[in-house]
């Protein structure tokens, strides 16, 4: 039983919501708070106190007996924003309770136990059907006991701190095995069942055939992702009903598409009826995979249904994640979520350092030094193609002078790709400087390592002639010192010597520095590779120490 104690009206309202959600599990303790807490502590396995943690600590201190005996205690603050696991995180189940309470009340669970704070994903929250001892295996993971991951089917999972061998097992399988005592089975949606049926085939016959095929092949119905058939059978009631009862979508393909699939058992009958020599096998195989159960017919006379079962490999997931310019609070929540979702992280070592604390335990980190760009891109794609959830990281936006393009140039269509935008150096610098990007602007990288200088120069000239605000990336390094003066010279041919120029080094990082100078006064020697240089257009002004490009200057050209 979970004892509920509150003091204020807001606390009582939250308490009542929890009590209404869990009528069987909870009991409300009314009356003076001290008495209520003491009574609940004596009578319940767990407490949820809608009280300040300090108040609860003072009330409970004299009552504490020991880790093994004390109830688990969760405190919820007055605003209902946090569910704090205060006492008995593991033994008393308070960590799990804090999460559950959080889910009901929309509060953030606050867990300070080391292992939990390490942020393990719940085995029951991975989005896959599961069987077996989730509690025992989760506890083993939390307690740092060795848990082995046996992935019979490669599937993109979040990182889990698993060992090569262990007394506990997480098994990713579509086979119809039962979970051992210290085992959790995760059911990936890896099976596709192709079905064919004559007009009017009864649902029982279709469903019976599918179930029999799975049973005899030793496969779990919980891993069936979809039923597949030919377009002409999209409305065939027996097939539609079978999909419904299995709780999976029905996917259909055109006869032409199916006819093009090579199958072991083509036949004349469907060719005449719907225009493809195979329905069940072809529909199961059309998106690739391994044929586990070749076409079979139902036992009915005459047989009105056929089916075939294919195992489709898990589609890996490649998230290309921009980390922003450096400051943690300029890293988007979406980027943080992707980092925690990936089991493999690929990136430049200095960027990995920037976010290492956000990673879940068990994340495989593949870091490399400067320069190895194409290799990083290839590694990330290869890992995704093996069925992993991969995050490829870059500073700023990962699509701007960064990893997204080499990675996507490598990527085939057998993986899912997700981009997470980031705050670029140009934007971060712009915010520091004022509003230099208020009108049309471009970024130009001055690195001529991969781009010939004459191409760069042509673009600088075009930007100069078209009066664009220009942000120079990679402006100057030890070996490349003449490019920036040269580029500024080209701009100066079209802009006043007094045109404002913003120089921002390490935008949003601890040692950020910024200054606003002019085209004539800028000393290129003060610029390095941690810097972006933003040159204003002919309308940009230094106003009260801030660089401002007006949004429009139609009035300058408009004769009215
Ligand atoms: N993808 C990044 C750019 C990488 S190219 C982005 O979207 O911002 C590397 C160049 O970016 C550096 O040479 C420097 O010119 C610039 N840069 C990156 N981070 C910066 C920061 N925090 N402050 C200033 N310039 C930065």
TrEMBL record:
Source superkingdom: Bacteria
Stretches assigned to the Cobalamin synthesis G N-terminal domain: 36-116
GO biological process entries: cobalamin biosynthetic process; methylation
Any one GO molecular function term: precorrin-3B C17-methyltransferase activity
Xref: InterPro entries: 4pyrrol_Mease, 4pyrrol_Methylase_sf, 4pyrrole_Mease_sub1, 4pyrrole_Mease_sub2, CbiG_N, Cbl_synth_CobJ/CibH_dom, CobE/GbiG_C, CobE/GbiG_C_sf
NCBIfam families: cobJ_cbiH
Identification of the protein by name: Precorrin-3B C(17)-methyltransferase
Native organism: Streptomyces argyrophylli
Gene for this chain: cobJ
């Amino acid at each position: 039983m979970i004892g509920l104690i509150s003091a204020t009206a807001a606390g009582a309202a939250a308490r009542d919501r929890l009590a209404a959600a869990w009528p069987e599990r909870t009991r409300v303790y009314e009356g003076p708070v001290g008495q209520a807490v003491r009574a609940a502590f004596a009578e319940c396995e767990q407490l949820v106190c809608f009280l300040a943690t300090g108040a609860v600590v003072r009330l409970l201190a004299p009552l504490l007996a020991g880790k093994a005996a004390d109830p688990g205690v969760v405190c919820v603050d007055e605003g209902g924003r946090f569910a704090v696991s205060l006492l008995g995180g593991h033994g008393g189940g308070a960590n799990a309770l804090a999460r559950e309470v959080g889910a009901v009340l929309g509060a953030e669970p606050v867990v300070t136990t080391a292992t939990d704070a390490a942020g393990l994903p719940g085995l029951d929250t991975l989005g896959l059907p599961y069987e077996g001892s989730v509690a025992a295996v989760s506890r083993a993971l939390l307690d740092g006991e060795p848990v082995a991951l046996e992935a019979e089917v490669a599937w993109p999972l979040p990182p889990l701190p698993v060992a090569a061998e262990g007394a506990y097992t997480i098994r990713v399988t579509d086979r119809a095995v039962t979970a051992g005592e210290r085992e959790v089975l995760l059911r990936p949606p890896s099976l596709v069942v192709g079905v064919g049926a004559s007009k009017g085939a009864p649902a029982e016959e279709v469903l019976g055939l599918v179930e029999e095929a799975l049973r005899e092949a030793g496969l779990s119905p919980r891993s069936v992702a979809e039923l597949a058939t030919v377009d002409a059978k999209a409305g065939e009631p027996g097939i539609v009903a079978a999909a419904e009862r299995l709780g999976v979508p029905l996917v259909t393909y055109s006869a032409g598409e199916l006819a093009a699939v090579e199958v072991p058992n083509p036949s004349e009958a469907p060719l005449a009826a719907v225009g493809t020599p195979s329905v069940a096998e072809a529909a199961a195989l059309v998106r690739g995979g391994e044929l586990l159960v070749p076409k079979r017919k139902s036992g009915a006379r005459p047989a009105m249904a056929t089916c075939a079962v294919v195992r489709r490999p898990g589609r890996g997931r490649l998230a290309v994640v921009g980390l922003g310019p450096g400051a943690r609070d300029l890293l988007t929540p979406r980027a943080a979520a992707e980092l925690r979702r990936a089991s493999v992280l690929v990136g430049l070592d200095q960027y990995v350092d920037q976010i290492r604390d956000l990673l879940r335990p068990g994340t495989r980190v593949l870091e490399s030094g400067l320069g190895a760009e194409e290799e990083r891109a290839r590694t990330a794609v290869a890992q995704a193609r093996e069925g992993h959830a991969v995050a490829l990281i870059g500073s700023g936006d990962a699509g701007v002078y960064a990893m997204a393009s080499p990675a996507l140039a490598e990527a085939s269509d057998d993986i899912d790709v997700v981009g997470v935008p980031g705050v670029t150096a140009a934007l971060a610098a712009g915010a520091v400087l004022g509003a230099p990007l208020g009108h049309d602007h471009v970024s130009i990288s001055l690195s001529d390592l991969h781009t010939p200088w004459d191409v760069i120069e042509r673009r600088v000239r075009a930007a100069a002639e078209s009066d664009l605000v220009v942000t120079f990336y990679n402006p100057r390094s030890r070996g490349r010192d003449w490019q920036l003066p040269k580029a500024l010279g080209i701009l100066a041919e079209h802009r006043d010597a007094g045109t404002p120029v913003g120089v921002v080094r390490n935008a949003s990082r601890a040692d950020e520095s910024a200054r606003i100078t002019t085209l004539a006064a800028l000393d290129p020697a003060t610029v390095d590779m941690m810097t972006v240089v933003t040159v204003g257009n002919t309308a940009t002004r230094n106003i009260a120490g801030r660089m401002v490009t007006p949004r429009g200057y139609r009035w300058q050209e408009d004769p009215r």
